[in-house]
Amino acid sequence: MAVDAPPSTWARRESLSSQVVRVLTDRIKQDEYPRGSKLPTEKALMEELGVSRTVVREAIANLRASGLVSIQHGIGVFVRDDAGVTPFRLGEADLMQAGNMIKGLELRIGIESEAAGLAAERWTEADLKAMSDACDTMEIAVKNATRNTLADFEFHCAVAAASHNEHFSGIFNYLGETLMPRMRRTTQAVDDQTLSLHLARVNNEHRAILAAIEAREPDGARAAMRAHLIASRDRTLAKMRQD
Fold it and tell me: Which residues of the chain have pLDDT under 50?
């Protein structure tokens, strides 16, 4: 297999391992090394590219760190089945933009509504207790105007867990950890009475979700979660317009 350019012509300002990474990455992207296929041996790459074993190993380590290949010790290096797939990510800097904050909430509407429906079908006594405890903790926050959103976060985590589908929990934990810091900052800007009214409204919405889940009403649970998150989105929009 010919290399696009011989090693002797590679740019000197770029390290040899970086140049090998670039060559191998291009081959993976162009499907010369299909997903799931085994890469040539170290010896074959050394001979073809005219580089040392150390350079090849450093390049393979970089490809592994970037998620393009996996190493099966004693067997070889393989192109990952998900090579080249861009991982989903929401950056904190992006969410500081008003439009992206709303998009994040819209994403939660779709994901958490279905999680609530599954929770209504699958909850256990432990799940029900976790959701109820989160609501009780939020009642205390209402009385004390507690300035954190932990109880809110814990309720939604408990609903996701009650779906007994670990992917819902994983996605929500990711979204929650990304979105909640922005929500916590918002609570610092209001007085105690306004905060208590807000928390009480949110907890009433949580209890409506919990009631539908406990009654094993999947459609009702989906509708209650959807109504809650739409209300959260609308409150966020109103706050943004006010600011």
Answer: 1-3, 95, 181
